[in-house]
């Protein structure tokens, strides 16, 4: 992954207790669908462990970090920022432009919030992107955005250093220990 | 929607307290990404109200039901059943076959579980489908599955009887009251 541009996901607004599982799902979705790294708000340290345990078991590379200054991450990000919001432009209208800049080598920071996102995030973003203009789920938006960005290639990704590999089955479960 | 086949989403294994927000996100994702109906376990009655309130505000049609016999829903479903699970066959390999049967008029029940899904669900399913064979999120799997099933057409859906409509913006928020 050294030579290709990076995709990092910034999870804003984690509220301890209330957001634990949503934050976990954001992190695991970022990992499974091709992001390189997720940045979580400081209060989500336990979630970091959960996500890292999945990477230990099922492979990587995938990094998890916590930050107590998400605004600073936004300010200091050197390349492009995508903010997923139901108020933004339809993903189907902007995905080609985003993909083109990513393929030209631009790192991408994908920002997903909880309920309320501060105004400066909308301003910091190069694209405010809506996966439908309907209220639903930051996990769903992230998943659809990544699947479209990579045009499905992320589904065939190979994982390094996996202890466990799921072997696809028409019926039942099969996990091979490596 | 009367003449086209139906897509219903069955949310299994809602644990009150722990699963409230995930179940809400499953329901809202089903609605936003083109399903006609969601069926929730009985304990999720509060979630039903949350989802119905979104439909009241942002439009439909979309139905929410609760069931205390999810196994009966599975047994009595007359057409095709898709179970989303990390142990199943890759979505990219089976989506064409599923779409083809749906377009031929087969109603589709899409089943998503919480942590542990009983064995008979795997057996009842016509397809056990994996959106990657990695652990991540039932919300993410549902979103990617629906977006692929409809090939993006769901993103251009028109909503009926909406009180509020979000007008896409490059920056900022705009909601029009109808």
Overview of the structural elements:
- Two copies of one chain form a homodimer.
- In chain A, 37% of the residues lie in helices and 23% in strands.
- The first copy, chain A, has 178 residues and is α/β, with parallel strands linked by helices.
- The mean pLDDT of chain A is 94.
- In chain A, the strands form two sheets. Chain A has a six-stranded parallel sheet, sandwiched between helices. Chain A has a two-stranded antiparallel sheet with strand order 7-8.
- Chain A has helices at 20-32, 45-58, 70-76, 91-103, 119-124, 138-149; strands at 7-11, 37-41, 63-67, 80-90, 108-112, 127-130, 164-166, 175-177.
- Chain A is built from six helices and eight strands, in the order βαβαβαβαβαβαββ.
- In chain A, α1 (20-32) packs parallel to α2 (45-58) and α1 runs parallel beside α6 (138-149).
- Chain A starts with 6 loop residues before the first strand and ends with a strand.
- At the A-B interface, α1, β4, β6 and α6 of A face α1, β4, β6 and α6 of B.
């Amino acid at each position: 992954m050294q030579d290709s541009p990076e995709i990092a996901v910034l999870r804003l607004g984690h509220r301890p207790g209330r957001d634990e599982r949503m934050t976990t799902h954001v992190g695991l979705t970022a990992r499974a669908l091709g992001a390189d790294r997720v940045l979580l708000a400081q209060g989500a340290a336990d979630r970091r462990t959960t996500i890292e345990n999945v990477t230990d078991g099922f492979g990587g590379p995938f990094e998890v970090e916590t930050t107590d200054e998400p605004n600073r991450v936004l300010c200091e990000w050197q390349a492009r920022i995508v903010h997923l919001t139901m108020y933004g432009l339809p993903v189907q209208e902007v995905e080609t432009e985003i993909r083109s800049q990513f393929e030209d080598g631009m790192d991408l920071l994908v920002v997903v919030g909880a309920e309320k996102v501060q105004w400066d995030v909308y301003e910091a973003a190069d694209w405010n992107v809506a996966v439908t203009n309907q209220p639903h789920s930051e996990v769903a938006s992230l998943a659809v955005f990544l699947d479209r960005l990579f045009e499905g290639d992320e589904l065939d990704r190979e994982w390094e250093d996996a202890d466990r590999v799921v072997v696809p089955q028409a019926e039942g479960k099969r996990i091979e220990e490596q």
